[in-house]
User: Fold this.
Amino acid sequence: LFSPSNSNCTLYRDCRLDTVFAFPTKLYDTKGCRAYADYSLKQAKKYGIRGTRLGALRSVYIWITSSFPEISPDLRIKDVLHDLIGICGDSRYCVAILHEGKPALQLCGKIHAGTVRLREFSQRVITDMNRYGAKAIAAEHDKGVDFKALSHALRAFDQMEELYNTGRIVFPLTTREKLKSVKRGDIPWLELEQIIVRRLAEIDTKRAEAKCICRYDREFARQQILKCYGIG
Assistant:
């Protein structure tokens, strides 16, 4: 829809699509669109999410739900801390600590006192997983990082941000140099993971508060298709 914005990369343009290119906002729905998030999270899931913040949260959540199908109201973090760390421990994201002289759990930078009830802690983990979009990460993940794929994941966020701000996407993107840097592998995965999590939250917020509201016009789309067949 927006490829003609870069005339240097346009090899051929069929005049029957001029109306489509003139009114691209009739062919997508900004409020209902979240494919960018699914696409970007798919890349993160496939390339290197293991051993990251999202992976740590998911590991803890799976351990709790599998170990305690019905959590006793009296069960607290301190009661299961040793077993939890034994299965889910991660020197970067999931460690047992002493907080104010008492046993506690530090998970993804957050400190949870040992006296916190396990049922409440489970809800906290679910909240954090939902915040980070970890619902989309439902399968095991391959090892290794494909920086090219991750550059495309970030590109999707950048394009959606521009779309929500202006109603259009103009190529080349203003963030192209940053994306090239990601593609070359100049930015470590651990840093990229944080960027992807942050960008997902930012773009989801923009989607809810978008200045440019576009709705798919089914009749417009139908007429353009008929025109291409010489019917309209």
